[in-house]
Write a structure and sequence with these properties.
2 domains, alpha/beta, three-stranded antiparallel beta sheet, Arc Repressor Mutant, subunit A, FAD/NAD(P)-binding domain, 11 helices
C-alpha cells in the first residue's frame, strides 16, 4: 500500500477532513465544530496531510491542494458508491447490471439520497403510483426500463413537451415495441432537444 493511500484511509479523521475540505477552505474552529474533533487530535492529522501535499494552510484556514482535490473527489465517489450499494445490497445483488453502460456504472454514487420502491406481485403489470407521482413532478429524469407499459409513451412525451430533461435506456424488445406501436410518439419525443434515448444490446434484468 502506498504511503498516500495509507495516509488517507488509515485514519477516519484524515478521511473526513479530506472530504470536508471539498466544500472549500476551513478554519481550525470550523473543522473542530463540523467534524466534532479536538485541536490536539486534529492538528497532527493535518500535519501528516500537509507532508503528503494533500492539504496546505492559507493564513488561518486549511485548503486542499490540487492533488488533494483529486484524491478527495475520488474518495468521496468511492464512499458514496459503497454506501448506496450497501443500502440496497439485495437489490443490486439480485439484478444483472451488465446492461448499464460503464460510464453510467461509474456514476452510481450520484443516486445518493434515493429510495427503493417495490411493487406487490399482484401489481407487477401496473405502473407504481409513487413512481408516477414522483416522475410527473420531475424536471430531470434518468431511467432504465426492461418493461413496457402502454401508459409510458404518452407520459414521457408529455413530460418532454413540458421541458423536462429526459434520458432513457431501454431493453431492445421494449424499444422494438415502442417503435412498432407508438412510432409517432417516439418520433416526436426524439425531436425534442432535451431528450436522449439509448437501446441496450444486453438483457436488462
Amino acid at each position: 500500500m502506498s504511503k498516500m493511500i495509507s495516509t488517507v484511509t488509515s485514519s477516519e479523521k484524515r478521511k473526513n477532513l479530506l472530504i470536508y475540505l471539498l466544500d472549500g477552505p476551513k478554519s481550525l474552529e470550523e473543522i473542530r465544530t463540523s467534524l466534532k474533533v479536538t485541536s490536539s487530535g486534529m492538528i497532527p492529522q493535518i500535519r501528516k496531510m500537509e507532508d503528503q501535499k494533500l492539504v496546505r494552510s492559507e493564513g488561518k484556514r486549511y485548503v486542499l491542494t490540487d492533488v488533494g482535490t483529486v484524491i478527495a473527489e475520488v474518495l468521496n465517489s468511492f464512499i458514496n458508491t459503497t454506501d448506496i450499494i450497501e443500502k440496497y445490497l439485495d437489490f443490486w445483488s439480485s439484478h444483472n447490471i451488465n446492461a448499464i453502460p460503464p460510464h453510467l456504472l461509474k456514476r452510481i454514487y450520484e443516486l445518493g439520497n434515493c429510495s427503493l420502491i417495490e411493487t406487490k406481485l399482484s401489481e407487477i403489470h401496473e405502473p407504481h403510483k409513487d413512481f408516477l407521482e414522483n416522475i410527473s413532478r420531475s424536471r430531470k429524469i434518468m431511467g432504465i426500463s426492461p418493461i413496457f407499459h402502454s401508459s409510458y409513451p404518452s407520459l414521457f412525451l408529455q413530460l418532454a413537451r413540458s421541458g423536462a430533461d429526459i434520458s432513457l435506456l431501454l431493453a431492445g424488445e421494449v424499444y422494438d415495441r415502442l417503435n412498432n406501436e407508438y412510432k409517432d410518439i417516439l418520433d416526436e419525443f426524439l425531436r425534442i432537444s432535451t431528450t436522449r434515448l439509448y437501446v441496450s444490446k444486453e438483457d436488462i434484468k
